[in-house]
């Protein structure tokens, strides 16, 4: 009796383990970086981020110029012999100007990162229907992006090359590409307005 129960439990555990393995095999993997490079999107994203960074740098330069002009104006108002209190006020204004500049740099860095993230999100949205179609053809329920958190996966479940081929066969129209670019630019310019 005990032997039958143990055998039944072992069989049940084995079958349960097999079902879990089967469920896990319904996943396919793709490498978004490889796809972006192979389809030219990585270079496009890089150029767009560089352009946005140039614009942000120009804005930072304008802010710096304005702050320096304001400080120079205040110093000029004090004349050639400022009092000790005037010097403390100028020091305080200088500290405030430096803080404003640091805040502007931090904000510019955040906007740059947000813009880059928006471009990558747009790439993912563009690739999603292609990856989904290929995954469904393979009977998969999940498409996972290859990352550093993965230790290993069977190369047979990698659909990167198939996605690249499909994207190259049906590239984005220039209208769709312009809409994607405008959408991400609007995200940045809306943040600038705040």
Automatic annotation (TrEMBL):
SMART domains noted in UniProt: OmpH (SM00935)
The keyword Iron-sulfur appears for this protein: no
Biased composition range(s): Polar residues: 171-194
Gene3D superfamilies with a match to the protein in the record: Skp domain
Xref: InterPro entries: Chaperone_Skp, Skp_dom_sf
Gene Ontology biological process terms from the UniProt entry: protein stabilization
Signal peptide, first to last residue: 1-23
Record keywords: Coiled coil, Signal
Gene Ontology MF terms: unfolded protein binding
Disulfide bond keyword on record: no
Family the UniProt entry places it in: Belongs to the Skp family.
UniProt name for this protein: OmpH family outer membrane protein
Organism name: endosymbiont of Galathealinum brachiosum
